[in-house]
Amino acid sequence: MAKKEKENAELELPKTEGEEAQEERAPAAGPAEPTEEELKRLNECLEAKTKEAATNYDKFLRACADFENYKKRVEKEKGELVSFANERLIKEVIPVVDNLERAIDHIPAPEEQGEGESDLSAVKDGIKLVLDNLLAVLKKFGVEVVSAVGEKFDPTKHEAVAQEETTEHEPGIVIKEFHKCYYLNNRLIRPAMVVISKTPEPSTPSTGTEEVTEGED
User: Fold this and answer.
1) What is d(CA 123, CA 113) in angstroms, rounded to the nearest whole number?
2) N or C: which end of the chain has fewer CB atoms below 10 A?
């Protein structure tokens, strides 16, 4: 009998609803709080990663800017390649234009020709027609011919080969040109060869002395 009572005492009694609810509301054991050393290490790691992220973002922005500049440079070079692809050929043609202009200038007008000389008006007109057609073709490909006579001397587009004294112009004015200035799509490809005005030097008066012979009274 005593043995049976002992066994019954060892049996667990069923829990009531209140006891089960109280156990559910009891907070579960959480993780241990980090130590100060661990917090310090985590903060240092966070700062390092933040700095690394900022550095990488700056590199990314620079790379994007460099790529945009590269695209613009390539587009510009491509445009220049198309615009100035014929530059070498045009430079070879310009002396031909110069020679045609000189030929026209050296053919005298009919009223200036001497007796017995053949009339060269038809030849002059033919050369002028060829010159006009050639200039029209050059203009079609972006060539512009500019005369420098009357302009102020500009070393960026004029090449002075001589100076000439004159009172008709102020100093530094282009008064003659041996050949004109040429542009290709607004780029100078040949400067004008010119003569510029110069102020005349003042003439020095004669310093001769007169000899006076004193006669006897």
Assistant:
1) 14
2) C
pLDDT at 174 over 80: yes
Torsion of CA 8, 12, 17, 20, to 10 degrees: 170
What are the percentages of helix, strand and coil residues in the chain, rounded to 5? Answer: 50, 15, 35
Task: Give the confidence band of 214 by pLDDT, cuts at 50, 70, 90.
Answer: very low
The CATH code that applies to domain 87-110+122-198 is 2.30.22.10
SS3 state at 56: helix
Q: What is the model's pTM?
A: 0.58
Instruction: Give the residue extent of every domain in the chain.
Output: 45-83, 87-110+122-198
182: tokens are: 């040429």
Residue whose entry in the numeric block shows the structure tokens 């430079």:
91
